[in-house]
Structures are given as structure tokens and as C-alpha cells.
Fold this protein.
Amino acid sequence: MIRRFDIGPFVLALGALLLLVGLFLAWYGEFTAWDVFELTDILLAALAVAGLAGAVGLLTPDADYIDRRWLPWIVGAALVLVAASIIDPPPAAAEADRGTGAWLAFAGALLMVAGTILSLTRVSFAVAVEGRDRRRRVAAVDHRPPPTETGAPVARSSESLLHPRPEESEAGETS
């Protein structure tokens, strides 16, 4: 049995998790996204959770809470918000350097974009979960002469009707 798994929802979920984790790390100097932003951090968290829900819905159609047509908009909004926050920081952190959290959130948003593209284009990989085939017997190979009592194969006559061997034909004439 060959099972097919769509890789897109897994990449989408990984990106959403990275975005969520990035919100709790330092974005500007020692400040996290929760310290610096007023509304952007809440929007990014909501978009990351929506991306996770969309990935779960793509993996299990029974748990389809978000229509797959909304995924490009959700992911696009997350990417635009993260990119805008990196390019134009809020006034409270205008002089601070970008931290690990900002770049991790940006990588997560890019992974969410890649996962959505892979999901909507239906790129998948196959995994074989069946056992190996046993060797099959072929009639031409298994047609052997029966063994004798000692286990040695029975000698066959090498005499051909069209071309008899000279030794056997002479021995046959003298007896």
C-alpha cells in the first residue's frame, strides 16, 4: 500500500509555530513583540493560530474550520505585517537592532507562504508502507530433474534426434 502525504500543510504548520514562538523572543533589542506592539502582536498571533487551524483542516477534512480559499489571504497578511514591522519599527524601538524574534517570525511567515503554495498546488510525496515482495518462483528456473536416492540429479541423455553424438552412435552399433 502506498500512502500519499501532502507536504504543504506540514510546512504551513511549522511556519505558524515559528511565527508564534518568534512573538515571545526579542524583536528589538531586549523587547519582545508583546512589549513593543499595540495591535500587531495580537494580529500576528491570531494569523498564526488561523494558519495552524488551516493546516489541520488540510490534513484532516473533518476538522476543516477555515476554508482553504482563505489561507492565501491569512498567510499574505502575516507576511506583510512581519515585513512591515521589520522595515519600519514602532517608535518605542526605533533605535534598537532587530532581534532573533523578528527574523524567526519572518522565516515563519515565509514558511507559511511556501506551505500554502505547496498545499494549493497539491505537491505530495509517496511513502511505501508495505513489506517487500518475496521471491516468486518462475517455472523455467524451477523445472529441474527429480533427485535420486542419494540426492544427485538424474543424468539426462544428451542424445539429439537430429544430431547424435559420435561416441554414443558407435557404442550403440557395436552392441
Notes: The longest helix spans residues 100-120. The chain has one domain: 2-128. The mean pLDDT is 80. Residues 145 and 155 are 9 Å apart (CA to CA).
